[in-house]
Amino acid sequence: MTVLRSIVLFVLAAVAEIGGAWLVWQGVREHRGLLFVGAGVVSLGVYGFVATLQPDSHFGRILAAYGGVFVAGSLVWAMVADRFRPDRFDVIGALLCLAGVAVIMYAPRGA
Asked: Exposed, middle or buried, 29 (CB in 10 Å: 0-12/13-18/19+)?
């Protein structure tokens, strides 16, 4: 159950951070206005909070592992929101990052 909870939290954090950054991008780069920027800033704050809910108590480990989730999640977000089509190297890189997440977060460790 702990691993499942951790994965769900990583997904929620990814949606909040990637979505927040995308909203800021839309507000500034695509001239959609301050409402988009403000919503993005709030979403980025939600990301910071969600990360604290991870069962592991080591900030560095959580942030390092989240980096891999962010890489893969960003490609998925781009596919959905911007119709981006990753090439095989994007997919291979994302899978390598997710393998790193699995090692960092879920490898058996001695007490």
From this structure: exposed
Compute the distance between CA of residue 38 and CA of residue 74 in angstroms, rounded to an integer: 20
Residue 86 and residue 79 in contact, taking contact as beta carbons nearer than 8 Å: yes
Integer Cα distance of 44 and 55 in angstroms: 20
The pTM assigned to this predicted structure is 0.89
Cβ-based burial of 86 (10 A; exposed 0-12, middle 13-18, buried ≥19) = middle
Provide mean pLDDT across the span 7-33.
97
Whole-angstrom Cα distance, residue 5 to residue 39? 26
